Amino acid sequence: MKDFFRPLQRRHGITIPITIKVIVGMLLVIAIISIVFMVFGVRIISDRIVAEAQEKVRNDLNTGREIYLSKLAHINTVVHLTADRFFLKDAFLSGNIEQASAELIRVKEEEGLDILTLTDQNGSVLLRTSNPGVIGDNQNHDPLMEMVIQKMEPLASTIIVSGEDLQIESPILAQQAYFEFIDTPHARYRPETEQTDGLMLKAASPVFDFQHHLVGVLYGGILLNRNHDIVDKIKQTVYHDVRYEGKDIGTATIFEDDVRISTNVPNEDGSRAIGTRIAEDVYNQVFVQGKQWIGRAYVVNDWYITAYEPIRDINNKAIGILYVGVLEKKYLDIKQQTVYTFLTITVVGVLVTLAVSYLISLQVLIPIRKLVSTSKALAQGNLDARVDIKSGDEMEYLANSFNAMALALKKRDEQLKEFATKKIMESEKLAIVGQLAASVAHELNNPLTGIVTYSHLMLEKIPCDDPTRASVEKIAGQADRCKDIIRGLLDFSRQRKPEKTPSNINTILRGCISLVENQAAFHNIQIVENYQDNLPQVVIDPSQIERVFLNLIINAAEAMDGGGKLTLATRLDSDGRVVEVEFTDTGHGITEENMNKLFEPFFTTKDIAHGTGLGLAISYGIVKSHKGAISVESEVGKGTTFIVRLPLNGIIEDTENEPEIEIAHH
Ligand SMILES: Nc1ncnc2c1ncn2[C@@H]1O[C@H](COP(=O)(O)OP(=O)(O)OP(=O)(O)O)[C@@H](O)[C@H]1O
Ligand SMILES: [Mg+2]
């Protein structure tokens, strides 16, 4: 029984409890799901944050451009309105240009212009407010001036002013525009080390006389180099001067070519990073190819999420770059925080799921463990072991079936024990009866022999017509019958060992038939012989076995009461080790009540004259000593089948084992 549990241990050499299997299985599923979830989640979050940041700087750049252009528009308005004023026309009319000087200086100061200069209709300077001593030079080489004189309408644009021109406009401006380049990591390579020209927001407007003839041009402008008004206004408007970890979150810059000339991007020391230059890849895309740049870029000393676009002059040629950018660090931190939060939630979720699934798995595993331990107990012989599961599901159903099975097992066990005890008692009873019968028969045998002998002697002497003869005949007949009974008893009880020789069962059966078939009792009985050919020889005592067969045949004939069919059959059983001999009659059958008593000595349903009730008891004894078995099947009113099983070699002595009696009833 213990073997039942062994396959579990043998499989792979190690035992993996079902608990571990279930939990590991769940863990795998959960782990796979959460890894997929985390990888994609983190990816989506990162992409989303980057996209958000880029969208923001794109908008910031738009705002920055508006601020820049509004400054230019303002200068244009100031110059245009001033050029239209009467005091200028009057100055030209009177020929005394100097009389306009005071008002022009006032306008320049009030509007915060760096230059405000008046020329004649050909571009020769008549009055220069920023550097009054220098006049007479021609400004016609300036593309803006050229276009205004040509079109005779006010225009404004960002333009490059050369170092010499700046020197003429004002030495202070020339100095303000001058940069010696400062190298930073990632900065674009450039062979030059300095720059003298400047980037200027400039507007020019024609001056007409009262007859609307062009008499001069007024131009004014603001030098953007080292002038941080615009970039600071962008920073303030767009980023509200918000700081992150000691640094400005948002920054703006104006480049002249690739040089930062106006910026609030700080150097390491916190000063404005003017004089530093742009990164190569950004320069190529924005300045050379003329496209916007939106993305991360290394700006001076930090990574920023940036937006750049070209600044163009009046001829639409790229001359500078406008930049806005936010510190990437802030977005990285947001990203990191979001990812951490996300990961924490996922991990907590995984743990909670794991705990919940563990609890659920216990619902299944605890009952299984109970079942296992109970079945072990059962296997070890504790038939009272029961499983107690009240889960209201299949487990409870299983437990109930298991308990029912255990109960059935216990009942079967009890029945077996009871049966065994009964059998032992029966065989003890048989033995006692046998011994008693043997000693009685033995004691009676001698006196009976005397009665038989003398009654027959008396019969011989009594003449036929003597009236006492009938009585003596009765005495002799009854004495013969007593003799028969005594012989039967002696046969039954005598522990005569069978003298076994290899014999053919079919031959013995044929012998039996030839002995009985001429008897009156068999006249109306049809005998059918179904013998298996080539039946192997069986080691038996032929005369004893013949007696068994005769008993069964005569019983069958008596049961059929002179009419019916007796079928005899022999065969080798499927194992090839036992010969089966079958006697089937169509007699009155055996009642269930009588079934169990058939083999008891002196059990008979026949009257005194016909049966002693020893036939089957003797047969049983003989078959037993051949290690065989007798079984009966019967149906009342239909007939009876006796089967005698004889092992091919029944020589091995084994008195322990009772011969088997099998009884079946329909
Ligand atoms: N083939 C059978 N059909 C019906 N009943 C049978 C058959 N064989 C035996 N019996 C029943 O079993 C009883 C016992 O049989 P058993 O051979 O031991 O004794 P008996 O035939 O009555 O007497 P004896 O054989 O000693 O002359 C019979 O009395 C009969 O009731
Ligand atoms: Mg009999």
Number of strands: 22
Helix content range of the residues, please? 40-55%
The secondary-structure class comes to alpha+beta
Strand order of the largest sheet: 16-18-19-21-20-22
| Average pLDDT, all residues | 88
Ligand inventory: adenosine-5'-triphosphate, magnesium ion
Low-confidence stretches: 1-11, 652-657
Largest sheet: 6 strands, mixed
Could you tell me the strand content as a percent range?
15-25%
Radius of gyration: 66 Å
| Number of continuous helical runs | 16
Distance N to C terminus: 34 Å
Shape from CA axes? Answer: rod-shaped
Describe this structure in words.
It contains 16 helices and 22 strands. With 666 residues, the protein is α+β, with helices and mostly antiparallel strands. Strands 16-18-19-21-20-22 form a six-stranded mixed sheet, covered by helices on one side. The protein has a five-stranded antiparallel sheet with strand order 2-1-7-6-3, sandwiched between helices. Helix 2 packs across helix 8. The radius of gyration is 66 Å and the shape is rod-shaped. 29% of the residues are buried. The N terminus is likely disordered. Bound molecules: adenosine-5'-triphosphate and magnesium ion (MG). Magnesium ion (MG) binds next to helix 14.
How is the topology of this model organized?
Layout: H1 6-10, H2 18-83, H3 86-94, H4 101-111, E1 115-120, E2 125-128, H5 143-151, E3 155-161, H6 163-169, H7 171-177, E4 179-180, E5 194-195, E6 198-208, E7 214-223, H8 229-239, E8 243-244, E9 247-248, E10 250-256, E11 259-263, H9 280-288, E12 293-299, E13 302-312, E14 318-327, H10 328-379, H11 394-461, H12 469-493, E15 501-503, H13 505-516, E16 525-530, E17 538-540, H14 542-560, E18 564-572, E19 578-585, H15 592-595, H16 615-625, E20 629-635, E21 639-647, E22 660-665
Parallel strand pairs: 16-18, 20-22
Antiparallel strand pairs: 1-2, 1-7, 3-6, 4-5, 6-7, 8-9, 10-11, 10-14, 12-13, 13-14, 15-17, 18-19, 19-21, 20-21
Helix pairs in contact: 2-8, 2-10, 6-7, 10-11, 11-12, 12-16, 13-14, 14-16
